Task: inverse folding
């Protein structure tokens, strides 16, 4: 049957009795996603894949007016959804005000939906990429919104489409926050870690880096996540490999710059700017005066305690 959704009616139509279904549930041959919806074998460990199954199970029980939206649409589109709860399916009905409700399994939003804001992805009717990013950014924290917006731009979403979605949402709750996240978004971020690191760098008050900074290594070119040409410094959000980090660091130093192997790991979502600044500080050598003093102590046999 594969890792796809199977409903009770479909199983019975295929000739499985209720006792057989119960037996398969007991043995683990089937696993319930929600009442009346099952997958073969265990549920996916990946939270996004599991949420997509919840989406497909919920859509079958809703009327055709419900359009998958917000974080659920982001999952269906394959966008990064770091740090967001995935226990509840989110949909939107094309209504101005009435009809919104928040249940334990489904959160129904009510908002105007234009025809060109609705698409079909793998058989699921959901909001388009631009509308999905704006809806999500209106309601989630800045860092999570940036992660999703970066992923959408990386997937090919164009800024004019995002700007148009923001104009349509003018006057809705959370639009200023969405506008801020969209303005900050950059499709050059290649991962969740890079997106979070950009937020941490900004919160720390550091200069804006150039993304995917090229570094010449012999006759080839390597790319670091971040580069500051004026400071002659490069950085990595999370080292993709020890060899890559060592090569980029060595190349940065050979060019007279600084290569940081500390990385630019983003802090937890609610970390303070002070902690971010401390974590983002480049690994620079001690000042010349301190080095001279240390050498003098070694020559005289004096060691600092």
Result:
């Amino acid at each position: 049957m594969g890792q796809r959704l199977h409903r009770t009616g479909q199983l019975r139509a295929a000739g499985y009795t209720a006792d057989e279904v119960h037996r398969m549930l007991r043995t683990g041959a089937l696993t319930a996603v929600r009442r009346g919806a099952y997958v073969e074998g265990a549920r996916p460990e990946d939270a996004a894949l599991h949420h997509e199954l919840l989406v497909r199970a919920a859509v079958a029980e809703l009327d055709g007016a419900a359009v998958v939206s917000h974080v659920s649409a982001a999952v269906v589109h394959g966008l990064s959804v770091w740090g967001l709860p995935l226990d509840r399916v989110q949909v939107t009905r094309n209504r101005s005000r009435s009809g919104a409700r928040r249940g334990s399994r489904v959160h129904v939003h009510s908002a105007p939906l234009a025809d060109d804001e609705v698409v079909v992805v793998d058989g699921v009717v959901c909001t388009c990429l631009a509308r999905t990013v704006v809806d999500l950014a209106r309601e989630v924290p800045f860092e999570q919104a940036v992660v999703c917006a970066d992923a959408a731009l990386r997937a090919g979403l164009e800024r004019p489409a995002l700007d148009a979605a923001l104009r349509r949402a003018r006057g809705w709750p959370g639009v200023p926050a969405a506008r801020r996240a969209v303005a900050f978004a950059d499709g050059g971020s290649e991962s969740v870690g890079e997106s979070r690191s950009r937020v941490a760098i900004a919160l720390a008050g550091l200069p804006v880096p150039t993304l995917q900074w090229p570094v010449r290594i012999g006759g080839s070119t390597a790319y670091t996540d971040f580069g500051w040409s004026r400071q002659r410094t490069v950085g990595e959000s999370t080292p993709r490999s020890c060899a890559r980090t060592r090569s980029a660091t060595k190349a940065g130093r050979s060019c007279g710059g600084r290569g940081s192997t500390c990385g630019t790991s983003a802090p937890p979502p609610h970390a303070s700017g002070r902690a971010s600044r401390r974590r983002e500080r480049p690994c620079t050598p001690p000042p010349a005066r301190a080095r001279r003093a240390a050498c003098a102590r070694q020559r005289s046999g004096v060691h600092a305690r």
Summary: The CA atoms of residues 49 and 75 lie 8 Å apart. The chain is about 40% helix and 20% strand. Confidence is low (pLDDT under 50) at residues 241-256, 259-295, 297-305.
